[in-house]
Write a structure and sequence with these properties.
Layout (H helix, E strand, L loop, with lengths): L1 E3 L11 H12 L2 H9 L8 H8 L3 H13 L3 E6 L2 E6 L2 H15 L11 H5 L1 E3 L2 E3 L1 H12 L12 H10 L13 E4 L6 E4 H13 L3 E3 L6 E3 L1 H11 L5
């Protein structure tokens, strides 16, 4: 497997303001937004799959993907004769998550319009989001698993992760642990490497399952019992 080398759009006036406008312009299309949102599940998609998600022709999808590639929003990797596209990294996922939160804001009604299932549990790139994730995060704070600002696991938190068998990559360059603002709940869930490790653990234990092609997460009957017991929550 190898990465397809991409070139960022570069012009003589390389000001921060212009760079920001280029990124905003690259996102400012409903079809490209659909593509980016699909990639928020943390997996790599083919152009054909993204074409179906965005409900556009394959030739049109190619042009949109090139625009996203040239602006560093997605990357392309090749495996044999196939090409797969994914978000360029956690920073892009964070940008999109924040943009979703801003876009959900309305002065007319405080009621969230996110579908109920998606609001309860979904992926936020490579970690768990939604009402379930927010409740788990708040339980961790109450039980002193996390520092008050959510920036790190406490000694107690590290011990519990180790006892559960949750492995955190010690060599990662990303934040080991951080609060991530949930765009539907408007509260924090667990991000960073710790959040990613927790999602992986839940999947390995088959406490949760992914909905193919979507960000939605289903909690299994075993998972409801285990998560309820572990985090003192009532999971329906």
């Amino acid at each position: 497997m190898k990465f397809l080398k991409t070139e960022y759009v570069s012009e003589s006036d390389d000001s921060l303001e212009k760079s920001m406008s280029l990124i905003a312009s690259a996102i400012a299309d409903p079809s490209r937004v659909s593509i980016l949102c699909a990639l928020m599940d943390g997996r790599a998609w083919t152009a054909t799959e993204l074409s179906a998600v965005a409900d556009i022709a394959a030739s049109t999808t190619s042009g949109h993907l090139n625009r996203l590639l040239n602006n560093g929003l997605v990357i392309c990797l090749t495996q044999g004769r196939h090409r797969y596209y994914s978000l360029a990294g956690h920073h892009i996922a964070g940008l999109l998550e924040n943009l979703m939160g801003v876009s959900m804001h309305t002065f007319n009604s405080p009621e969230p319009r996110t579908p109920v299932n998606l609001r309860f549990a979904r992926t936020c790139y490579d970690h768990l989001a939604g009402e379930l994730a927010v409740n788990i995060y708040e339980c961790m704070l109450r039980n002193n698993w996390l520092e008050a600002d959510g920036s790190a696991l406490t000694a107690s938190g590290k011990m519990h992760f180790e006892q559960l068998g949750i492995e955190i990559n010690a060599r990662t360059r990303r934040k080991r642990c951080c609060p991530c603002l949930d765009w539907s709940e408007r509260r924090f869930h667990l991000g960073g490497e710790a959040g990613s490790a927790l999602l992986t653990f839940f999947l390995q234990k088959e406490w949760i399952t992914r909905v193919p092609g979507y960000r939605e997460i289903n909690v299994t009957s075993t998972g409801r019992d285990a998560i309820s017991r572990l985090f003192s929550l009532k999971v329906i």
